[in-house]
C-alpha cells in the first residue's frame, strides 16, 4: 500500500446510549430504541462515507448497591436484528454488531452473521467481546462458569470455529461437512448458509490487555481501542502491529481505530466552553458519587457531590457493584485524586470530571480535522470510531463540517470505491480453506 493511501483514515459511527458519554437530559436527545434513531445515525454516517455503523451490547442491566442504576439505558434491541433492518435502508455502510463470545455458540452465531452479510451484500462485521463475571452469567444457562483466564482462549476458538463454518462451502457453491473438536467446542455437521459476499464478516476486537492485543494480532481485522492521546496511541499501534508478523500477517491486515469523541465550535474558546458544559452533563451529581464509590468500595451517598473528597480511605476489598472490575489500586487512586483536588481546590464532582474520560478532539472544524489527520499520519491510528454525545443527531455536525475538510486534505475518501466492508477497509478477502485462523 502506498504512503498516500495509508494516510487515508477510516471512520465509523458508534450509536450512543449504553455508556456515560451520552447526555440524555439534553432536549435534542431522542430515543435509544425507536428504529428512527438508528436509521438517522446510519444514514448520516453513510452520507459522510463512513466505513461502518457500530452497535454495542449489554447482556444485563447494571446494578449498584443491589439496585438497578437509575441512569442506565434499558430496552436496547438486539444488535443483529437492528442491523438487519438497517441493511434495507443503507447501501454501502458497514454494519457491525457486538456479540458476546462467552454466552453464544459458534454454529448459531456464524449463521446469523452470515445471514446479515448476505442481506447487506457483504457489509457485516462482528465485534467480539467476552465476559467472565457471574453476574452477567446468571442470565444464561451455564451462569458464571468461565474463569477469567479462559475468556480469550474461548473467544479465539470461537472465532476460529466460525471461520471454519464460513469456509465449509466450496468455491463452486456446495456445502462440505465440517468437524471441529477443541477445548471449548466440539461440533460437526453441515453449515446451511453459503459463503458470504465478502468471504467472512469482518471481525472487530476491543481489549487493551496483553492477552487482548495478542488475540487481536492473531484473529481480528479491526481493533477498537481506548487510546485517545497521540503518545499512547502511537505506543499501542506499534506494539499491536509488531505482533502481526508472528501470525504471517502484514501491517495493513489489521486496522486500529480508537473510540473518540469530539466537540466543535466556531472558535477554539467556544469549543472548549461547550466541552466543559458537556462534561458537567455527563458527570451528574449522582454519577459523580457512583464513580467515587467504585474507587472507595464504600457507601458514600451521604457525601455532597459539590463538597470535598472523603477523608476516609477506600476499602480495598469493597465491592458495591456486581459484574464490574475495579481497575487499579484504590488506595493509590484515592491518593492521586486527593492531591489533585487539593492542588486545584476541586469538589468531588469536579475531581471526577477532571480524572475521567474527556472529549478527544475539541476545537474548530479546521483544528479537529488537522489533529485527526495527524494521528493517522504519525501512526497513532488507522482511523476512528466516533462516539457522539447525542442520540441520534450527534454525528450531523461532524459530517457537515469536518468530513469536507478531511476530504480537502486528501485524508478521507470522496466516494465509496467498493460495495463490501472489507473493500472499504482495504482488507484482503479470506482465501477459501486457507487454514488461517
Automatic annotation (TrEMBL):
Keywords, alphabetical: Flavoprotein, FMN, Monooxygenase, Oxidoreductase
Under the heading Pfam families, the entry gives: Bac_luciferase
**Gene Ontology terms for molecular function:** monooxygenase activity; oxidoreductase activity, acting on paired donors, with incorporation or reduction of molecular oxygen
Q: Which InterPro entries match?
A: Diverse_substr_monoxygenases, Luciferase-like_dom, Luciferase-like_sf, NTA_MOA
Decide whether keyword Oxidoreductase is in the record: yes
- Family note: Belongs to the NtaA/SnaA/DszA monooxygenase family.
The protein, known as? NtaA/DmoA family FMN-dependent monooxygenase
Q: Which organism is it from?
A: Streptomyces morookaense (Streptoverticillium morookaense)
Amino acid at each position: 500500500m502506498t504512503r498516500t493511501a495509508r494516510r487515508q483514515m477510516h471512520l465509523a459511527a458508534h450509536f450512543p446510549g449504553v455508556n456515560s458519554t451520552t447526555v440524555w437530559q439534553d432536549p435534542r436527545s431522542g430515543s435509544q430504541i425507536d428504529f428512527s434513531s438508528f436509521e438517522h445515525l446510519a444514514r448520516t454516517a453513510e452520507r459522510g462515507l463512513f466505513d461502518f455503523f457500530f452497535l454495542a451490547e449489554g447482556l444485563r442491566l447494571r446494578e449498584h448497591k443491589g439496585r438497578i442504576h437509575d441512569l442506565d439505558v434499558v430496552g436496547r434491541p438486539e444488535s443483529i436484528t437492528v442491523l438487519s433492518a438497517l441493511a434495507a435502508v443503507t447501501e454501502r455502510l458497514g454494519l457491525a454488531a457486538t456479540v458476546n463470545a462467552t454466552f453464544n455458540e459458534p454454529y448459531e452465531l456464524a449463521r446469523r452473521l452470515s445471514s446479515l452479510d448476505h442481506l447487506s451484500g457483504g457489509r457485516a462485521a462482528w465485534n467480539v467481546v467476552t465476559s467472565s463475571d457471574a453476574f452477567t452469567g446468571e442470565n444464561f444457562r451455564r451462569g458464571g462458569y468461565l474463569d477469567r483466564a479462559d475468556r480469550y482462549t474461548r473467544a479465539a476458538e470461537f472465532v476460529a470455529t466460525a471461520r471454519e463454518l464460513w469456509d465449509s462451502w466450496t468455491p463452486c457453491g456446495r456445502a462440505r461437512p465440517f468437524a471441529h473438536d477443541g477445548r471449548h467446542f466440539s461440533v460437526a455437521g453441515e453449515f446451511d448458509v453459503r459463503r458470504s459476499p465478502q468471504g467472512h464478516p469482518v471481525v472487530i476486537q476491543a481489549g487493551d490487555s496483553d492477552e487482548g492485543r495478542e488475540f487481536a494480532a492473531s484473529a481480528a481485522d479491526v481493533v477498537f481501542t481506548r487510546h485517545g492521546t497521540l503518545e499512547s496511541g502511537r505506543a499501542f499501534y506499534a506494539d499491536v502491529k509488531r505482533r502481526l508478523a508472528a501470525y504471517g500477517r502484514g501491517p495493513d491486515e489489521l486496522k486500529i481505530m480508537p473510540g473518540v469523541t469530539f466537540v466543535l465550535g466556531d472558535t477554539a474558546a467556544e469549543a472548549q466552553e461547550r466541552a466543559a458544559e458537556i462534561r458537567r452533563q455527563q458527570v451528574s451529581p449522582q454519577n459523580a458519587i457512583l464513580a467515587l464509590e467504585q474507587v472507595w468500595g464504600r457507601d458514600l451517598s451521604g457525601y455532597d457531590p459539590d463538597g470535598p473528597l472523603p477523608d476516609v480511605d477506600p476499602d480495598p476489598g469493597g465491592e458495591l457493584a456486581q459484574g464490574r472490575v475495579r481497575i487499579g489500586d484504590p488506595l493509590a487512586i484515592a491518593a492521586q485524586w486527593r492531591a489533585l483536588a487539593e492542588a486545584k481546590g476541586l469538589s468531588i464532582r469536579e475531581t471526577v470530571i477532571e480524572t475521567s474520560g474527556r472529549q478527544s478532539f475539541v476545537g474548530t472544524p479546521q483544528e479537529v480535522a488537522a489533529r485527526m489527520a495527524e494521528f493517522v499520519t504519525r501512526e497513532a491510528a488507522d482511523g476512528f470510531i466516533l462516539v457522539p454525545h447525542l442520540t441520534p443527531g450527534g454525528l450531523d455536525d461532524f459530517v457537515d463540517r469536518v468530513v469536507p475538510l478531511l476530504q480537502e486534505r486528501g485524508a478521507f475518501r470522496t466516494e465509496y470505491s467498493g460495495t463490501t466492508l472489507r473493500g472499504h477497509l482495504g482488507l484482503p478477502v479470506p482465501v477459501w480453506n486457507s487454514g488461517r485462523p
